[in-house]
Specification:
This protein has about 180 residues and is mainly alpha-helical. It has helices at about 5-20, 25-40, 45-60, 65-75, 80-95, 100-115, 120-135, 140-155, 160-175. Helix 5 runs parallel beside helix 7 (about 120-135) and helix 7 packs parallel to helix 9 (about 160-175).
Amino acid sequence: MSHSERYLRLTGLAQRAFSRGRLERALALFTEAEETARRSGDRELTDRAFCNRCVVLLELERLDSAIGELKNVLMRSRDPFTSWMAAYYTAQVYEFEGNPKRALAYARRASELAEASGEARARMGSANQHGVLALKDSQYGEAAPRFEHALQLAGDSGGDAVSTAIIRDNLGYCLMCT
C-alpha cells in the first residue's frame, strides 16, 4: 500500500471516529496519518494532515501548543483548502483564548481562503464563523452579510436544519441591533 493510500485510509478511519465522538481514537489515527504523510515527503499533505489533527486537538481543548505551527502552515501552504483550515482553526483558538480581535482577523482570512478553495463546507463554516466573531465584536455591518452568505450557502447545499436555524437566529439578532 502506498503512502497516499495509507494516508487516505487512516484519514477516513479518523473522520469516522471523530464523528462518533471517539476523540482519542481519532487523534491517534490523525497522528498516524500525519506521520505517514511526513514519510511520503509531501509537504502539502503533511500540512493538511496536521490541520486534520488540529480539529481533534481543538475539541479536546489541547490546541494551544499548535498555534505557532498553524500560522506556519497558513504562510507556506499553496493549497487554498489547507490554508483555510489553518486560518479557521487559528481563529477558533484565539476565540477560545478570549482574544476576539485576533480571532476576527483570522476569521476574515479564513473567509477569503474558503472562497478561493471553492469547498462548500469551508465557505459556509467560514461565513458563519466570521459572522459570529464580527457579532461578538459589535461589527454588525460586517456580521449581517456574512450570516446572509452562510444562509445562502446552507440553502444551496441543503445544510442541516439546526445549523440553518442558528445562523438565521444570529442574523436576526444582528439586524435587531442595527
